[in-house]
UniProtKB/TrEMBL annotation:
Domain Peptidase S54 rhomboid, residue spans: 63-194
InterPro entries on file: Peptidase_S54_rhomboid_dom, Rhomboid-like_sf
Subcellular localization(s) per the UniProt record: Membrane
Membrane topology of this protein: Multi-pass membrane protein
Gene3D superfamilies: Rhomboid-like
Full protein name: Rhomboid family intramembrane serine protease
Listed GO CC annotations: membrane
Length: 195
């Protein structure tokens, strides 16, 4: 069966639409879970905060996988929600399977960086937000496709000032999570690039 160019274009648009919808559902669901967790944490007087990353505590290493989904109050969560939704959606829309692997790399690299270098219990989706930023910019550099370059330029134009978050400053903000999340995102874009 042969396809006309119009039919091929229509099929391609449908595929992109399904991918965008899947990405929206995935990121929306993760965000909803983070809000439910914070509501539970609020009602239990911060009980979930213990699932943050405790530096250099070997027994706490598994918490590198929970910490990015926990927050230190609703103010913290509100500050992270919009960039998480936007950068997460764009990253997921470039491919769900790659997004999931990239997120795992970001969580591991970011979490280990915090575990080794931080001096306090650390939690929050900033690790993932900085990781998605690094992943999207890295894709533009390593993939060298026009769409990925355009996305990287747009992401830097809108969120470029967040790079200052990797500089030590406010003791209540984990520059380690920001820095190593960013590094994890760039590494993910390198490992997941087209051969």
């Amino acid at each position: 069966m042969s396809y006309t160019p119009d039919r091929q274009r229509s099929d391609e648009l449908a595929k992109h639409g399904v991918r965008a919808l899947s990405s929206l559902i995935l990121i929306g669901s993760i965000t909803a879970v983070m809000w439910v967790l914070e509501a539970f944490d609020y009602t239990t007087d911060g009980w979930l905060d213990r699932f943050g990353i405790q530096p250099r505590d070997v027994d706490d290493l598994p918490d590198i996988f929970t910490a990015p989904f926990m927050h230190a109050g609703f103010g913290h969560l509100m500050a992270n929600t919009l960039p998480f939704l936007i950068l997460g959606f764009i990253a997921a829309a470039r491919g769900i399977a790659k997004f999931l692997v990239a997120s795992l790399i970001i969580i591991v690299v970011g979490g280990l960086g915090v575990w080794f270098l931080s001096s306090a219990n650390t939690l929050g989706s900033s690790i993932l937000i900085f990781g998605f930023f690094g992943y999207l910019v890295g894709r533009g550099i390593f993939e060298r496709r026009l769409l990925d370059i355009g996305i990287a330029v747009a992401v830097v134009a809108v969120y470029g000032t967040m790079i200052f978050g990797v500089i030590p400053g406010d003791p209540g903000i984990s520059w380690q999570g920001h820095l190593f999340g960013l590094i994890g995102g760039v590494l993910a874009s390198w490992f997941l690039r087209r051969s």
